[in-house]
Amino acid sequence: MKVKNAKPFLKWAGGKGQLLKEFETLFPPEAKEGLLDTYVEPFVGGGAVYFYINNYYTFDECHIFDVNEELVLAYTVVKNDVEELIEILKDMETAYLQLDPEKRRELFYEIRDKFNEFKTSIQWQKYSKAWVQRAADLIFLNKTCFNGLFRVNSKGEFNVPFGRYKNPKILHKEVLQSDSALLENTSIHLGDFAKCAQYVGGGTFVYFDPPYRPLNQTSSFTSYSKDGFGDDDQRRLAEFFHTLDSKGAKLMLSNSDPKNEDPADHFFEDLYSDYYIDRVPARRAINCNGKSRGEINELIITNYKTGRNNLSVF
């Protein structure tokens, strides 16, 4: 299936849209040849890689996971009720754009307060139409908040402030419809990355895009869930990577490169000493200091040789 407009319907910190051309040389050859029947993404986030690979490669089934309840809810709505979602967003966009800047600000905080107040009233009950409005509120907040971040505090509350955009595009109808079409062959799961193990076998490609290890104290955007993701979680993920490797699956993982800040930091080389490590250039996508949006390296770790000149670390 080839869908023209498929791409993330949310702006997401750490999204991989800018790296898709690089990733073409890093995906396993078996995926390109149609020899793998299952795609699994345990940290789907904004879904740039998922929407790309499910569009241009052939898989019988896909499984996407995330611990972020709001994100999983939104994917479920896009899959099951995209036309109703589009109608709600159309009305929200029309109403918002007719307001002056101060009234827009007031509406933003009204919707954000409502979103946080009722954050436990919908999720993970039986699916209902109330989910559609909640997904619309999330998309609205994402398109109108500062820098398009999704960030929550320790209480799980969305806490990104208002963004002063002159003419924000809240409804992307064609994108939502295309994404819904691609989600037809996809199961959407709420849960920790380790829950994906039951869907992984020898004919599976798994792409891991965990919350990145911060390069320094000011660079962390890992608060996409209230529980965070620290070094112990990175170590647990490395052990899980090894477990799936023993199943014969093709595995690819991306993360920050500590050597951007400290050439002596071997954290990931030590964790993935049995595998291949490539470095790819990327631009900082979200940073409050525009001067800090320069090019840095990111790590790509695989359990197979890629089309690039691999830097093997064993």
Description:
The chain is of the alpha/beta class. It has 2 domains: 17-68 and 185-312, Vaccinia Virus protein VP39 (Rossmann fold), CATH 3.40.50.150; 73-157, Adenine-specific Methyltransferase, domain 2 (Orthogonal Bundle). Helices cover 34% and strands 14% of the residues. It contains 10 helices and 8 strands. The chain has an 8-stranded mixed β-sheet with strand order 3-2-1-4-5-7-6-8, sandwiched between helices. Helix 4 packs across helix 7. The longest helix is centred in the middle third of the chain and has 17 residues, at 101-117. The chain is globular and about 55 Å long. It starts with 19 loop residues before the first helix and ends with a strand. The model is unreliable at 218-223 and 285-292 (pLDDT under 50).
